[in-house]
Amino acid sequence: MTIPQLLLCLSLSMLCISSKPTEKKDRVHHDPQLSDKVHDDAQNFDYDHDAFLGADEAKTFDQLTPEESKERLGMIVDKIDTDKDGFVTEGELKAWIKKAQKKYVYDSVERQWQEFDMNQDGFISWDEYRNVTYGTYLDDPDPDDGFNYKQMMVRDERRFKMADKDGDLTATKEEFTAFLHPEEYDYMKDIVVQETMEDIDKNGDGYIDLEEYIGDMYSHDGDADEPEWVKTEREQFVEFRDKNRDGKMDKEETKDWILPSDYDHAEAEARHLVYESDQNKVGTAPPLPGGAPARMSPSPHPAVSAGAGPAALDFTAQRPSFPQR
Ligand SMILES: *[C@@H]1O[C@H](CO)[C@@H](O)[C@H](O)[C@H]1NC(C)=O
Ligand SMILES: [Ca+2]
Ligand SMILES: [Ca+2]
Ligand SMILES: [Ca+2]
Ligand SMILES: [Ca+2]
């Protein structure tokens, strides 16, 4: 998918949302955006900067003097160049951008970590998590606030055990991240699908039929006529969700729906930045024969000195190499 196609998709999906009279539950897990800015290098490089640094970090760059941002960038380029050969490859760039993209995931785990690691040993045991989350319920197993804590706890325990790769009932930071953000981990995808199916499959037959699918996103509330978007969803179910046309969604079909293999923003952006740096023909090693990876920014940090590297990575000017319009 090209960027214009992507933008078209995005604006179409906005149209859908704004035309919905009732709130629709979104079951689909999307990759987080690299930036909420428009990607148009003819205007500015805000998108590239957000992608490269993460939006928060990019914001702090706006407040730095050119000298300060050069110094900061120098340190960052060092970190991107993981094998320390003085070149930043497309692969290294992609890994870096992915990390920036997932930053909100790691931030949310950091925020919650202290709360659960009661004995501060650097791990979160299932007992710790259960006590913190369900302590009040365990003390008084019969609260009348309408929540089924028992069911929630059983579900959490199942997910915790799935995230706990080595089965010691204790989560490392990585395992706890998989527990809190299972959609980010391949080995957790089955449980994401399972939990979603359990939510929607009201008759418990292990499948999602058309009425269950619609019932999850729309409640009639006595309305005689269904809104247009619900009719569209019915068509979606028949045309796209129920691939083998047996009238219901099985595990695989549900997985395709809620965990679509999205357009890889990180890979596209890495390629774009490398291409951008090749266009400038400054400080770029010629591509090696035999399909060696495209490289950019030979050592020490030419990308950092204003005007001498890929323009998209020049943080020292607002609109680096493009003529003012
Ligand atoms: C959890 O709470 C129970 C009951 O209060 C207590 O006996 C147990 O030691 C607690 N476990 C942890 C890991 O804090
Ligand atoms: Ca602990
Ligand atoms: Ca473990
Ligand atoms: Ca069912
Ligand atoms: Ca089917």
TrEMBL record:
Residues 68-103, 104-139, 151-186, 188-223 form the EF-hand domain. Residues 273-325 are annotated as: Disordered. Gene3D superfamilies: EF-hand. PROSITE patterns: EF_HAND_1, EF_HAND_2. InterPro entries: EF-hand-dom_pair, EF_Hand_1_Ca_BS, EF_hand_dom. GO terms for cellular component: endoplasmic reticulum membrane; extracellular region; Golgi apparatus; melanosome; sarcoplasmic reticulum lumen. Residues 1-18 form the signal peptide. Keywords: Calcium, Endoplasmic reticulum, Glycoprotein, Golgi apparatus, Membrane, Metal-binding, Repeat, Sarcoplasmic reticulum, Secreted, Signal. One of its GO terms (molecular function) is calcium ion binding. It is found in: Endoplasmic reticulum membrane; Golgi apparatus; Melanosome; Sarcoplasmic reticulum lumen. Belongs to the CREC family. This is Calumenin. It comes from Buteo japonicus.
